[in-house]
Amino acid sequence: MGSVIDHIDCPNCGEEAWSDFYYKTGEEYTFCNHCGYNKSITIKNRDKKLTELTEDDWDISELANPYGAYRIEIKEAIGSHCGCLKSAEEFEELKTLMAEDIDKMEQFELSQFIDGKIVITDILEQLKNNSNG
Fold first, then answer.
1. Rounded to an integer, what distance in angstroms lies between the CA atom of residue 102 and that of residue 87?
2. Where are the domains of the chain?
3. Is the distance from CB of 36 to CB of 63 less than 8 angstroms?
4. The overall pTM is greater than 0.90
5. What single DSSP character describes residue 66?
6. Average pLDDT for consecutive 10-residue bins of the chain (133 residues)?
7. Residue in 43, 29, 36 with CA at minimum distance from that of residue 12
8. Calculated CA dihedral for residues 41, 18, 93, 88, nearest 10 degrees
9. What order do you get walking across the sheet with 58-63 strand by strand?
């Protein structure tokens, strides 16, 4: 499968987001690791030929006003895990889950678009302070 990865202005926060377009299928994924904006355009039924697809065969999903984006780095791991958060409740669930592995983490940050600015919070530091106090 071939794709073209491009950097675009995020439609939510205006920061740099990435877009991954699969030119053989027409599918597209957009993600902003600054605010958590996420949009995907995917094929629902892969049993059909591309020429047979109708408008109903596409799934379009967009998180236009996210709670934020997170980045987690695990010690001695290559790369990091990034994702978007739909709500404060979803973030609290992630934070609770990650608190169990606090000693394995190198970084845990929350990035949010608040009042026209990107605000980055060091969640790992908060978790460490909570476990010590």
1. 22
2. 4-63, 68-132
3. yes
4. no
5. -
6. 90 96 92 97 87 89 97 92 96 92 92 97 90 66
7. 36
8. -90
9. 4-9, 16-22, 27-31, 38-43, 58-63
